[in-house]
Design a protein that fits this description.
heterotrimer, A: mainly alpha, C: about 65% helix, elongated
Chain lengths: ~100, ~240, ~120
Amino acid sequence: MTYIVLILCVFLVGMALAAVLVKDLRSAIILLSALSLFASLAFLIVAAPDVAITEAAIGSALTTVIFVIALFRTRKSTEGNTSATVRRVDESARAVRRKETDNA
Amino acid sequence: MRKLIGILLIGGFAFYLITVGMGLFSAESRSELDSVGSEILATSPDLSGAANTVTAVVVQYRGFDTLGEVTVLFASALGVSMLAMAIRDGLLQDLFDDDGGFVLQAGSLALLPFIVLVGIYIVLHGHLSPGGGFPGGVIIATAVFVVILTSKTLSIPRGLINVLETLAGLGFLAIGFVGLYSPAQSFLANILPKGEFGSLLSAGFIPVIYAIVAIKVASELINIISKLTAAGSASREAAE
Amino acid sequence: MTVPQILYVSAFLLILIGLYSLLTQRNMIRMIIGLNIADLGVNLFLVTIGFVDNGSAPIFRAQAAAGPMVDPVPQALVLTSIVIGFGVTALALTLVMRLFVTHGSIDTARIRGLKW
């Protein structure tokens, strides 16, 4: 029992360190979601099933959704093509090509 | 420079935590509870009739704190609504351009009643098994999120959600005020009959309060997410 | 090392890691990730306070539970704390989105009022 708790807590602290130090923001958010799941396991070991259900429902599901929405809305439009810009570039290239074949 | 100051501050805080927490750390783990916990465990089945003691503490012994928490959630939803008005004006692009195809949309709509059923089960059995109003409400809201995130043209009935949230909040307060006219004469007193211990219709008004809390939490979360994504807003139609 | 001691140490470490991220990161979303980690550490610490050796969950079943039950009061308080932590995260992220609309970046070194 003590060894299970020891391994679980090493995972917990390791994932928290990784979520802070990793370079990519998307990986940090996925690590946060996994961290919340492991914390829910830790709550279960301390005989707190109510807290474990609440933490799993809120931490893994809701917080990840809100972080993903925030990440989506705060990226600059130059980094990473959104499909909207790709579609617009594609359509304008097609229009230029059509104009060229019309002129030729 | 910032990292150095950060490390110094964290070091100072760690020293404080170690000094304060050394008593907790070096005490041998106890084998019985001290006064408040053991008293609540001893009197809870008679006083509240709930098998789940955590639910009894949240709704009956500490019902006023639950009212405060519902108020804090309401305040944060209010703040998100006010700030999100400006966000929707600033970003007119389509939020989710690829909607995940037909399988994801049809699958999420097919899963919706089952997830809502699990949520309602967890809410209604809050006084018998672990769970209660808060995780149940969150699960019901998650069912609606899955549909929002995978389909482009879902319109959330905003008026209905607002009315549900208002009615739930007022219902909580109304039950509290009824307690003032009961024989116990205190706000949020347990007024309904206690029933048989361990059955579904037991524990007085605890299932009723938890159902009200679940409706309020679920409708607030749906409100927050539908304000932050562009589901059913004017900007989405303007962008198309 | 007994079980509560291991959990106390890891809760302290989580709080320290979360605070470090809140103080030294420049990206605002990383600051809020740190806030979330500190929240998790505090909740773990609070639940561990009520731990009893070989304790079982505080739910009365049909047959009487063998042994002592853990303390239900910290669990009830942590239930509230988790939900409020989510409310704070949602409001903070909406503020970050609003700042992005106004200033065009989420780096605190580029926003004049926020750098230190």
